[in-house]
């Protein structure tokens, strides 16, 4: 079926009220390319600056000298933009609506309250010795304190590094150490799906690891009152310290290029990378995309179901919506608790207008059948959004028909931790939709497709997705490792930012992301390096060698398929599979749980010893007939053996 048969044209009633219709999008996009200085100077006015920028864009994408600066002589503070400037006009409007894991738990914080508590927390951080330029690690549940902690850091010029609460103590330790965080903010426990997760215990364990003694203080929110260990002199109760602070905390004037946060993400090699995002460009990109892509209108209730531990939570629960004075719903729980109808029930309870979620959540609901949404009406919804992985057309149609009652456009938003904000997505009043396509670039974004040699490809074609010029929200570097930043993103294709994604462009210029072309997995929208999982496995005594690949998974998008070669003398057993599964969960976190483990007496390697992952991916996907060229294999019989003992038949 051709793409044309799947077009959902822009609805006229939508276009009439939207921030941008077709003509506006086209004119603004064109201007953003023709006159980036003028365009972005104008757009920068949507932020409040202490000193307005006069230097707008200084960006160099040279392989040896990547230098990205936006608005470099401007000064501002992100927390002022997200809080103070709204006090006069919307101080008593909700800023955050919090919905707890338990459907009986919810509360609302107005902009005034959020401002007051953020200032108190900022003063508390100062009293713990945190100063401008210091880093603070957040390992927190989805509670308003997480947003306050981010904003409090921003207020005093400290750099936050949020670590997803599902990561293990080792993963947390690695990130505390790399960031050099003086203070860790956490909670006694988090609550998800009726279960308590021992965050403070994990912090305790993390801080026994080598190199984490930089962390002098642990600030602990009491979320559940569960039993925890206490280290006098290091641990401080949040309520003891924060409640007594003054709510007056002048904001630090930050340079536009001063770091706002570090966020770790996985790559195809090595340890996770701490992407460094700066203040001015990032905030502008987050705010502007939030307004245009979600067509956010004053007073609407907007819900992004992500966790603040990921970039989506940073840009589209906290910074983008709050910079726009929006009402941002924050959900502590999971969509399947207490029942599979929860997502719709939360929409009805809070009259949500805009719902931004992940394809994996849609597919999980879809697997239960249409009735899963019967407990809710969802008639407050006006717009739906998708992020994190390609959304297959079936899931798109189901999202549209069942969740959105055929009333809501869907914005499929492609972007990355590195990009800071949305890069390719429809604007709902401007872009005709095609299920499965992220459609067209946002203002200032110049996507292109290249072949493996880096030649630009024209017209309808498929290739590697690159971005030709900088945009304001782009990560500036990798924390303490600019060389790695250059290597990872700017050496594959000279003079271009390489996304790591494959992509198709159709005859209308629409982009269709096909998934990663490197050794990065996307499991339920969570990004993971195969190398990280492999190095965890080979650290187990029973394992001689391991190779990890993704395979198509109905709900998760990709599942984790592991080939393990056991050490001499070790016998394979189901117990050992369980042990290895636990090992990886403990080492990295439950998100890295293997779906399939196959014992592999040998792995397919080239004569120079390189594992041929292409073959392993095919076997995992059960595409054993099309293995392609195997002539470079050192020992072809290895492949026969793996096919014969394939773990999923
Ligand atoms: O492969 C793309 C996929 O997620 C990767 C980025 O992951 P992360 O940095 O964790 O950020 C996720 C949230 C922005 C991308 O390289 N991806 C993200 N959104 C989409 C997507 N793939 C297809 N369609 C999307 N809408």
From TrEMBL:
Binding site for CoA: 192-195, 312, 524, 585
Keyword annotations: Acetylation, ATP-binding, Ligase, Magnesium, Metal-binding, Nucleotide-binding
Keyword DNA-binding assigned: no
Residue ranges occupied by any AMP-dependent synthetase/ligase domain in the UniProt entry: 84-467
Post-translational modification note: Acetylated. Deacetylation by the SIR2-homolog deacetylase activates the enzyme.
One GO biological process term: acetyl-CoA biosynthetic process from acetate
Modified residues (N6-acetyllysine): 610
Segments forming domain AMP-binding enzyme C-terminal: 532-610
PROSITE patterns documented for this protein: AMP_BINDING (PS00455)
Domain of life: Bacteria
GO cellular component: cytosol
EC number per UniProt: 6.2.1.1
Keyword ATP-binding found: yes
Amino acids binding ATP: 388-390, 412-417, 501, 516, 527
The protein's enzyme class: ligase
Cofactor(s) the protein requires to work: Mg(2+)
MF annotations from Gene Ontology: acetate-CoA ligase activity; AMP binding; ATP binding; metal ion binding
Pfam families cross-referenced by the UniProt entry: ACAS_N (PF16177), AMP-binding (PF00501), AMP-binding_C (PF13193)
Annotated function: Catalyzes the conversion of acetate into acetyl-CoA (AcCoA), an essential intermediate at the junction of anabolic and catabolic pathways. AcsA undergoes a two-step reaction. In the first half reaction, AcsA combines acetate with ATP to form acetyl-adenylate (AcAMP) intermediate. In the second half reaction, it can then transfer the acetyl group from AcAMP to the sulfhydryl group of CoA, forming the product AcCoA.
Family (UniProt): Belongs to the ATP-dependent AMP-binding enzyme family.
Matches recorded under HAMAP family: Ac_CoA_synth (MF_01123)
Protein name: Acetyl-coenzyme A synthetase
